[in-house]
Amino acid sequence: MTSSLASIPVFDHSAEPNVARMPPWVRQSLAQDVYADTAQLLHRQRLTTVCEEARCPNRGECWGRGTATLMLLGDTCTRACAFCAVKTGRPGSVDLDEPRRVVEAIRQMDLNYVVLTSVNRDDLPDGGSGIYAEVLRGLRAALPNLGLEVLTPDFRQLQEQAIAALCAALGEQGQMVWGHNMETVPRLYREARKGARYERSLRLLELAAVQPGIETKSALMLGLGEREEEVLAVLADLRAVGVQRLALGQYLRPSRYHLPVRAYISPQQFEHYAQAAHEMGFSWVKAGAMVRSSYHAEE
């Protein structure tokens, strides 16, 4: 696939309708006054946010609070997940000045907590971990009291290398939340997460969880056709590898070319999952229709 095809969907699920109309408990937040200020600052620094690229329904609320999740390594992903609005194709070259601009933007936003994520960069020898490390090193030097969270790809066969690079950049006394999203249950990986493997994602979280100063986190989007027992099995797997933080949200179809919504999860069901997660030992749980992996991460 060439970059000229990057904006063209690689799936066509247009013949598959959503299960029903969106229920009243699913709402998109409205922007507040500071929304425009946040947008201008990020665009001035030529930075990408997952808030925009993934069409996050909470963008108005989060940007209204002056917070954003920055997306490193460009806006083009080397994978083509059937649920994701981020464009896929052949990414451009790595922007080596990006770490400096990220640090400067975060300094200007006067944040207490920042989440860094990225597209998958399977085309790079290090999977993109070097840019993550440079950003973390810059933030530690410039803003030593800043709370840090990363939401990374699975890094395929480079997991140990990536973990070593990020932890070295963090420093011996550094603390950080390391997030990696399982997204869905194993049965649906072939349909929803082509290029990913359930066991590989679990392994990354397991490796990260044993690092000093690291707390691990994952997220699932519900409504793709998973069964309750499958969801609970994934939660059990996450706890077994040491994951402490969990986010559960409703899958919302970005376009007709993406997978259809096969179920709208009720608030009561989300509450049930949250209770089960707490009973399993998760220390931080967010569950609800509009919850996304970085939603209220600063809490």
Write the layout of secondary structure elements.
Layout: H1 35-44, E1 48-49, H2 50-53, H3 59-64, E2 69-72, E3 76-77, E4 87-88, H4 98-109, E5 113-118, H5 129-142, E6 147-151, H6 159-170, E7 176-179, H7 189-192, H8 198-209, E8 214-222, H9 228-240, E9 245-250, H10 267-280, E10 284-287
Parallel strand pairs: 2-5, 3-4, 5-6, 6-7, 7-8, 8-9, 9-10
Antiparallel strand pairs: 1-2
Helix pairs in contact: 4-5, 5-6, 9-10
Structural notes for this entry:
The chain has ten helices and ten strands. α10 links the parallel β9 (245-250) and β10. It has a domain at 29-219: TIM Barrel. The chain has helices at 35-44, 50-53, 59-64, 98-109, 129-142, 159-170, 189-192, 198-209, 228-240, 267-280, and strands at residues 48-49, 69-72, 76-77, 87-88, 113-118, 147-151, 176-179, 214-222, 245-250, 284-287. It has an eight-stranded mixed β-sheet with strand order 1-2-5-6-7-8-9-10. Residues 1-9 and 29-33 have low confidence and may be disordered. It is globular. With 299 residues, the protein is α/β, with parallel strands linked by helices. α4 (98-109) crosses α5 (129-142), α5 packs parallel to α6 (159-170) and α9 runs parallel beside α10 (267-280). It is 34% helix and 15% strand.
